[in-house]
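Sample pair:
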Amino acid sequence: MKKLLMLSASIAMLSGAAYADTINATVNGLVCSFCATGIEKTFKAQAAVESVKVDLDHQLVSVKTKPDQNLDDATVTKLLTDSGYTVTDIKRQK
């Protein structure tokens, strides 16, 4: 499984879509401010993260990366699933 995640991360890093300023992840299971606080702390601990916002109403986690920094989809998914949530979609925007 680790090899598969590493391969996925490598492929994502080679594609142009992997380098985005904002990552928007739709997540199931977000229901309270405690959830939001936990996710914010998890992402803020990542060196590549400039800021993170959690929208409970839309079950959306928006992560803004630092200039010339990146978080691949595999890492975003792992951080959220390790926190107890299910990722249903990830979209990137400049």
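The helical segments are 2-14, 33-44, 73-82.
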